[in-house]
Structures
1.
Amino acid sequence: MLVSVTLTSASNLSGSSIHPAALSALLRTAKPGEVLVIAPGVYRDLVLSLGAQGQPDRPIIIRPESPGSVVFTGSSSVELRGVGVTLNGLRFEECTASPLLLRDTRSCRVMNCSFIRCNPPDNRRTHWLRVVGGAAADNRVDHCRFEGKTADGVMLVVDGSDGKMPTQTRIDSNHFALVVRAVRNGMETIRLGTSSYGQSDAFSVVEGNLFERCSGDAEIISVKSSGNIIRRNTFRGCEGGVVLRHGYRSRVESNYFFGDGVARSAGIRVHGSDHRVFNNYLQGLGGYSLALPNGHSRFQPAGHEPTISAVVAHNTIVGSLGPSIEIGGEASELRDLRPTNCTVANNLWIGPKSVLLRGSADGVRLTGNLASDVVPARRQPAFAEVLAPLEVDEDAVRRPGNGVGVLLSGYRLGEIGPADDLCGTLRSLTEVPHVGAELVGCRRHRRPLKPADVGPRSAPVD
């Protein structure tokens, strides 16, 4: 997806490129649609507090003369406030402080920026990009690169304040790579909220991003708020998975997960109520592919909510090294409440290594699921077995081939099911549904993402 900023009738406010230290004063008089161009250079130990009033459709734009020619390093950090401001093409490299903070911003955008190896030498906890504030809304982070985190903290955080989460944050078309665990817990690649904001609606959308070797935490994306969407992302060789840790009514759909030989690679884990997990393709994962674990029956502020009324449907799981689906895992005296009123339907499991089900299915409705190419010792009576002809495409994705009418035998979910499939083809609410993430015979136009599809090089700098 190519994204550009319209600069119609925009002008360079300063008339020439400027030192970034002049930004704060110039922004006080900047008008919507104006552009501030930063002079090329490496800027060390520069702390900026910026505020401006643009418009959502006519932002004030801050950018370098050419992509990547402005580098902030050392203890440099930027805090942005205001409305309608776009930061385009900046580079934060080897910063020892948290590089970028958006505080209570509205309709602001961070695009084509790079965050590279920003690691304090003392392992001090720092977040690379943080969107914070109960008044924050309609912000976007896109076509950026985040690479090489080896110190405590999160690459990208959306955090609440004053009892409210930022709303309508869009995180898309970014490349996240090479996160190495430095602490036991707290190095998620993306975190949406905290335990205390689990019941707050954030309506964040994380889509079209590539995650490669992001292994800082068991939760690569940690969702601790409500009403979020995680879709059309690709995960490769990450030690961890997408975890709906707190909250309600979030969706995880049409993502690709590839284990790529990483032992603790994982898929999707669900806590909380009324979540939907649809159309995901999960291949060769070392840990769980899908998990509905036990929760606390007694309130725990930072504990694990019970899994209630989740629908996990139309996913395809191929060659799992760990359990394809784990139900009621992590049980203990405190985590004593099993998943309840959940539906696991119309999923396709493809062996031969898969352990189809770990745990008891009590409290979970298993229906319309099929298994193919499963070794006899791992057969499960809860899954109908079929011999489905499958093809391997150029992306190493196993897809239904010709003559797979046997896959047209799913359970009708009706309006609680997905509207389309992994390819983007509409599903019928009236016909017998196809099992798995793809409709038989669909044309693939949502492929696994590659580095050329995301990050600063995948969109023009205006």
Note: Helices lie at 23-27.
2.
Amino acid sequence: MEKVAVNEFVRRQLKGSGKTYSPNLSFEEITDHAETQMEAGDFKDGYRDGIRIVRGTPSFSRNFICPFVKIDENTELKANVVKRRPDEVPYIQIRAINTKPAQTGRVEFILYRHDVLAENDEHSTNSEWELISIHAIPQGVDELPMGPVTMMRNQLELPGGTKAHYSSKKWAESVQFWQRYAAVDI
């Protein structure tokens, strides 16, 4: 059995989704790379036990489109009320329009261990780890903070959230970053 498999949630990351995507790699090829990198020890622990952030190699990172742009006084924004899944509470999604996304600096793969996904019956396979998200980080950005809406969903244990508690510093860093960057409506 493979150690890392594709979670159905990550399959929403396609062209036009406003999320990181690869125009030329399958999700299975991406999980193979994430597994190789994790086995090589190129990862850091996530916000709780059972979550890992695996770093892609520089050459592999070139296969991903970064969906973010740095906001300036000329950036046009639009807001939509959306849900990621039918059972989730709607939230306000902000997108930058009429602009091009930033260059990808690097890519990170977010992996959840089977037991963490099983807490909310969100596992798609019986593999030890599942890829749940891909993050292309803009060139020049050291760390991509989790979005405040995701943090809220997790900390309040709302549908679609994974139980967590964040420090006030993590909250402030998230809000500060996401006041400077927005996803591009691509």
Note: The chain has one domain: 4-184.
3.
Amino acid sequence: MEASTDQFIRYLATERGLSVAYQSSVRQTLDALAGWLKSRKTSLRDLGTEELAEFLSTRKRAGLNAASLRITTVHLKIFFRWSVMKGMLAMDPAEPLLAPRPDMTLPETLHAGELVKLLESIDPAQPLGRRDRAILELFYASGLRLTELCQARLETLDTEDGFLRITGKGGKTRIVRVGHKALEAIADYLKNERPSLVRKKTSSHIFISVRGGALSPDRVRQIVKERAKLAGIDQNVYPHLLRHSFATHLLEGGADLRVIQELLGHADIATTQIYTHVDRQRLKAVHRKFHPRG
């Protein structure tokens, strides 16, 4: 199982070009399966659909929610499909498995007023204030994923027309709009702060650390949380919350769902449609509050 897992992860990296994060997620699933097989003293070749269903049930009892079980099922399907393709197995035991439907949970968002409070609380005159303000402005202005912001480079930023070219999930490239407030913050950071952070081996990443290296996702998460705490915001604030807020506020402002899909880089419009539920909740709340018979 270990050798098959290593070979499959190499396949995902070299032939499919999938991200390190996705490879890590698949490895966790397969390692869990390997541990389960070992506990039952069963080999990979002896696995059938019923055994895989039992494994998923075990994962569910261990606390995995519907969304995580769905991802786990997808991992198993692509692994066993590959195993059959490579001649390691005669039949695909995962093919009949049905992935559970994820629970419909509404994404958290920050109110526009709270976002203004957060952004304007950062003093550019303080150390790293310009960098951190630019990071938060760009998150909210463009709805970037955390990894997309960390990987953004100077050569992909068009400050004149206000666009950023990024590579998202699955290695897909898209162009995102950068609002004028974010452009102003980025320009201020690039001119007045980033040069002092540059070292001999500094890359062209837009956002860099005090040592001149590219910021890691964990460090950016920490920056967002620290700035929210300093702004006096009680809500749990994290990078993806800013992405949700970006999409929700666009929809509330009348933006077309297809446009939001393009800006977010969603491959399927169904993923974007979750924001319509947020908007419906807002409409219901407004109706209840202001209509005489609400």
Note: The mean pLDDT is 89.
4.
Amino acid sequence: MQINLITSNLGKVKELKAYLEPEIKINHIKKEYRELRSDNPEEIAKESAKRLAEELKKPVVVEDSGLFIKSLNDFPGTCSSYIHKRIGLKGILKLMENTDGRECMYKSAIAYCEPKKEPISFLGIEKGTISKKIKGAHGFGHDPIFIPEKSNKTYGEMENCESLKKFRRKAAEKLKHYLLEEQQ
């Protein structure tokens, strides 16, 4: 089986290939596309998947994720990529300088859609805390400031962080089950 993954983020491609292949081959289509503005990553992923499946006339998979920091009212949330480009990790840590509450969660929504059908989405969530400093050079995005539950290290400090991350893997495993078990 093969899926068409639409993203311009090569880190996501690497992670999803690790979770889905060899059972599901990923055909990566590098494409920028506009996204719905919403606080809900599942809503964004489903709308994008439906529109792209119609536009490309083939089944597609898209992923939308974000870092939701409780003390910042879930900021940056679904705008994580945009905020990361604008203020970076240092900017987020600056916003949290006088904040004791460091609880957060990563959310990943993977949507699958075939042309002329309704999209289906799969959500993965991972809880953690925000570190006080940028630590490590592994992973991508917010990994150097995200400390997963039951750890004292950021993903950025973990050389094999792609194999340890849970949020995108949980969503990918739900997609895999759907495609291999429920679609048959």
Note: The chain has one domain: 2-182.
